[in-house]
Design brief:
Shape: globular
Largest sheet: 6 strands, mixed
Helix content: 25-40%
């Protein structure tokens, strides 16, 4: 499921309270910051020597091509240092040749070692407004394993040849040594594309991205670009929420990653061993709730129109549209990992598909930040080289889905908590004020009260609402903000009982 990135664009006046809230949230959901001494020692050794302690004895690491002549670039958010991917795109006949270099994390991690155990406990990098908690120690994730510019780095290199319509016709994958020539930001890359100063590589990323977006629409797929939400100073005093516009180049760059994941899934399914990322079709109740959110935000959505047709019309730089994109992540519930090849056949048909992408799909392009990518990548490398999948990979496959499911729950709880926290920061000065919004969800009456979810028109916030009587699902209401408490990350509105906070409504136990 797409994340909900949030950052503080400036330090608020109550920064200490916000910092304490984030630290409390990390402890609450189990986000661990420190590293065991033996795991950190392994990472430092690998960074110093350029390889894991057991690298010389592992056949899968024995051959590495020199591709330092390929002028790769990285394209990431400004300030990024954990660079998983570097890209090169060039014309190839009537189509295109995509080269996608992915950080070769497996070359730095000893299977079964202390660092390996620690990364299995984390599962993924966790992002917060005050910084990230990485999957791997910074000496690797932001140093020796990161595809930083001007540095020779071990990588897994995907080469995908595309026809004139953007469909893959040939796929190769190998271990290689690469050197990125430049670290580009999304803003800088978009500027160069817009003003005509982009080089052939960036122009190729745009061309391939546009082709892949066309193919996605043709098969009924959809990509959900969730904009970053920022807490910024309000000129009138206090704080406000705004969304950073998702740039077109971010979508084109994402299409390169999606294409690589799709061809990786094809390789694994053909070999009968691997791990896929799957997603069932959207639940009808979530679609209905999203329709009510659209109505609250003034977004046109015809009754017979699928949600996949609505999303391309939206502009993430518009507050209401950005809020809708955030809420649309509810349609991605049920995403899971499916490992196969250890105790049964590969999944088939819709069981193997990612319903949003409308293709079988695998995670292989972010191994610095996501554990499962290391394993899918090793399967594909083994298949391409015509050798057996390493025992350490096969042994880990059965437990990977449960490991990543736990990681996903923790990340989702943390993301939701961060959003609750910053909304409380923004709204705390407005307690007692009345806001207009639309009821997008409502529960059955309990303790003489009805509880639900309210989507405000301005600011674009979704929060708890309570009422003395029925809440008109899909209807507009005027609700009073009765609670915005930063330490508890709690925002509550009331309809019909404006002076009584939700925390006072519980029955005595």
């Amino acid at each position: 499921m797409p994340g909900r990135p949030v950052r503080l664009a400036a330090r608020p006046a109550d920064a200490a309270e916000v910092a304490a809230g984030l630290e409390s949230l990390r402890a609450e959901v189990g986000v661990v910051r420190g590293w065991p001494a033996d795991a950190l020692a392994e990472a430092q050794h690998a960074a110093r020597t350029g390889a894991a302690p057991d690298a010389a004895g592992r056949d899968e690491l024995s051959v590495r091509a020199d591709r330092t002549d390929v002028p790769f670039v990285t394209v990431d958010p400004e300030g990024s240092t954990d660079l998983d991917q570097a890209v090169h795109v060039a014309r190839h006949g009537r189509g295109w040749r995509l080269r996608y270099a992915i950080a070769d994390v497996a070359s730095f991690v000893r299977p079964g070692g202390a660092l390996d155990v620690a990364t299995h406990e984390r599962g993924s990098t966790v992002y917060a407004p005050d910084g990230r908690v990485p999957l791997h120690p910074e000496v690797l994730s932001e140093g020796a394993a990161s595809l930083l510019p001007g540095q020779e780095r071990p990588a897994v290199l995907w080469q995908v040849d595309l026809d004139a319509d953007g469909e893959p016709v040939d796929v190769q994958v190998e271990r290689a040594t690469v050197r990125s020539r430049a670290q580009l930001t999304y803003e800088g890359a978009q500027r160069a594309l817009d003003d005509g100063t982009a080089d052939d590589v960036l122009a190729g990323v745009r061309a391939v991205g546009l082709l892949r977006e066309e193919r996605e629409r043709a098969r009924g797929g959809v990509s959900l670009d969730v904009p970053e939400q920022e807490v910024v100073p309000d000129p009138a005093g206090g704080w406000s929420l705004r969304f950073r516009r998702t740039l077109p180049v971010e979508g084109w760059n994402a299409q390169v990653s999606l294409l690589t994941g799709a061809v990786a899934a094809r390789v694994m399914l053909g070999a009968g061993v691997g791990v896929l990322r799957t997603l069932p079709p959207a639940d009808a109740r979530d679609v209905a709730r999203l329709r009510r959110t659209a109505a609250a935000l003034g977004i046109a959505w015809d009754a017979d129109e699928p949600y996949a047709d609505v999303l391309p019309r939206l502009d993430s730089g518009t507050g209401a549209h950005a809020a809708f994109l955030h809420e649309a992540t509810s349609l991605f519930r049920g995403a899971a990992y499916v490992a196969f090849g250890h105790d049964g056949p590969a999944p088939a048909g819709t069981d193997a598909e990612h319903a949003a992408i409308r293709l079988p799909y695998a995670h292989v392009t972010a191994p610095l930040r996501r554990l499962v990518d290391r394993y899918g990548t090793e399967v594909c490398l083994s298949v391409a080289a015509g050798r057996d999948v390493p025992d350490w990979v096969r042994a880990a496959l059965p437990a990977l889905p449960a490991t990543m499911a736990g990681t996903g729950r923790r990340a989702s709880a943390f993301d939701r908590g961060v959003l609750d926290l910053v909304e409380a920061v923004v709204l705390a000065p407005a307690v007692g004020r009345t806001f207009e919004g639309v009821v997008v969800d409502a529960d059955e009456p309990r303790d003489g009260r009805v509880r639900g979810q309210l989507q405000l028109r301005e600011p674009a916030v979704r929060a708890r609402v309570t009422a003395d009587g029925p809440l008109p699902l899909g209807g507009s209401v005027e609700a009073r903000l009765t609670e915005a408490y930063v330490p508890h990350r709690r925002v509550v509105f009331s309809v019909g009982c404006p002076d009584r906070p939700e925390s006072a409504l519980a029955s005595p136990a």
